[in-house]
Amino acid sequence: MQIHSDIPYVSDHAALQTLDLYMPDSATAKHPLVVYIHGGAWRSGDKSESSTLAKGLVGLSRDRLAVAVINYRLSVRGDPATMHPMHLNDTVSAVKFLVAGQYPGCDRVDTDNLYLVGHSAGAQLAGALVLREHVFALGKRIRGVVGVGGIYNLDGLLQAYPSYSDFVDMAFVKDQYEEASPYVLAENKLAEAAHIRFLVANSTTDELIGSDQAAQFAGRLVGSGYEDVTLVVRDMGTHFGQLDDRRFWQIVVDFVL
Fold first, then answer.
1. Between the CA atoms of 48, 46, 17 and 141, what dihedral angle is there, to the nearest 10 degrees?
2. By its UniProt entry, which PANTHER family does this protein fall under (predicted)?
3. How far apart are CA 94 and CA 86, in angstroms?
4. How far is CA 7 from the centre of its chain?
């Protein structure tokens, strides 16, 4: 496996506007690319914490997948400049960079075959990215989205967990809840996103996010006419523990391949 670290995805980049690329050793094939978006309540987390996950996905796929793990700028309490849509804009910039194919090993990446995998707040970013019209300069290159332990409905999250306002208010003002919630964005099916496959997963032993967020989001997608939606609710470990669990890796590899 070849690992390329700290690749900037925008010019004049900030420290967190970088990504790591995990490439199979195979030099003869083009590989689907999994783009992993970490969680951390939009205020914490780093791509370095996802190394085990990325290596696990490449290995479990028997070198048939490449994995990019992206960072994005994080919210800072009291700094409005670090609120939504900053995180989403960085995520879009990273995906556009990966599609453009100007990085080590890009000749072995199938840039028409991308899958977004988001955890927790990262699932919000992945869902919002594909369900907002402005991102479809990317064309149909994004083939699927996997969310695990995801936040899809900010209003619903705060109703279930009022104390989470501590971090939600760092990242969003209330007037932004609907435009940032994939659950709301999925209400009207986007023609540009009609081809996208969705896998919405939640562990029954996730101690931080209940399965209602996943079930309601999957139901909204189906009700809006998206034709390939899979809901997985089973024991895969704790909120963060599942990321290093082979059970979750297998779900992702099976979905992509």
1. 80
2. AB HYDROLASE SUPERFAMILY PROTEIN C4A8.06C, KYNURENINE FORMAMIDASE
3. 12
4. 18
Q: Residue 101, SS3?
A: coil
pLDDT greater than 80 at residue 210: yes
pLDDT tens digits, residue range 26-70?
A: 766 799 999 999 999 999 999 999 999 999 999 999 999 999 999
Task: Using DSSP bridges, classify how beta strands 142-148 and 109-119 pair: parallel, antiparallel or unpaired.
Answer: parallel
Distance CA 253, CA 156 (A): 30
Handedness of CA 222, 114, 90, 21 (dihedral sign): positive
Instruction: Give the predicted TM-score (pTM) of the model.
Output: 0.96
Instruction: Domain 7-113+124-256: give its CATH superfamily.
Output: Alpha/Beta hydrolase fold, catalytic domain (3.40.50.1820)
**In the chain, where the domains are located:** 7-113+124-256
Amino acid identity for residue 75 in this structure: S
